[in-house]
């Protein structure tokens, strides 16, 4: 589903290349580093394709972004660890799920976290919608 959507909507983007599926252990390791079980649709995406080298991060990139933002931005940006960053716009802003106070991921809401302001704004209600909106220059 996601692979076909990327191939259809990003067909003219030479950098958009869906990765091979992530293993369950790769997903679990990323969840452990982030500190939260991923929403079902993110797990589905990663088991279908482990990032696309364009919009969507691989499990390795999810881990790297979580570790680097927490290490370098936590003093400046309060609650930086309350997000599951899983994609980016290439300008330093990340697409994310919020981690709720009970430690679970917020479902049905994908946000864009803006690195200049540490603010989030609603981006999409699903990964499919995010892919469509991003590739149609709506966000």
Number of domains: 1
* CATH-defined architecture: 3-Layer(aba) Sandwich
How far apart are the first and last residues' alpha carbons, in Å? 21 Å
- SSE-based structural type: alpha+beta
Largest sheet: 4 strands, antiparallel
Q: State Rg.
A: 14 Å
Tally the helices: what do you get?
A: 5
Highest-level CATH class: Alpha Beta
Mean pLDDT: 94
Element order: H for helix, E for strand: HHHHEEEEH
> In the CATH hierarchy, what is the superfamily?
SMI1/KNR4-like
User: How much strand?
Assistant: 15-25%
What does it look like?
This protein is an alpha+beta fold and 139 residues long. The protein has a single domain, classed as SMI1/KNR4-like (3-Layer(aba) Sandwich). Helices cover 37% and strands 16% of the residues. The protein is built from 5 helices and 4 strands; from the N terminus they run ααααββββα. Strands 1-2-3-4 form a 4-stranded antiparallel sheet. A hairpin with a 4-residue loop joins strand 3 and strand 4 (119-124). Helix 1 packs parallel to helix 5 (127-135) and helix 2 (24-34) packs parallel to helix 4.
Q: What are the salient characteristics of this protein?
A:
alpha+beta, SMI1/KNR4-like, four-stranded antiparallel sheet, 37% helix, single chain
């Amino acid at each position: 589903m996601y692979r076909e959507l990327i191939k259809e909507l990003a067909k003219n983007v030479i950098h958009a290349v869906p990765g091979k599926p992530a293993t369950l252990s790769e997903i679990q390791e990323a969840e452990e580093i982030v500190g939260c079980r991923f929403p079902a649709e993110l797990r589905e995406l990663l088991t279908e394709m482990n990032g696309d080298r364009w919009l969507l991060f691989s499990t390795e990139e999810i881990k790297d972004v979580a570790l680097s933002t927490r290490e370098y931005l936590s003093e400046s940006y309060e609650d930086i660890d309350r997000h599951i960053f899983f994609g980016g716009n290439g300008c330093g802003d990340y697409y994310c799920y919020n981690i709720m106070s009970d430690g679970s991921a917020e479902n049905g809401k994908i946000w864009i976290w803006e690195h200049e302001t540490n603010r989030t704004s609603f981006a999409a209600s699903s990964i499919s919608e995010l892919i469509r909106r991003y590739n149609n220059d709506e966000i």
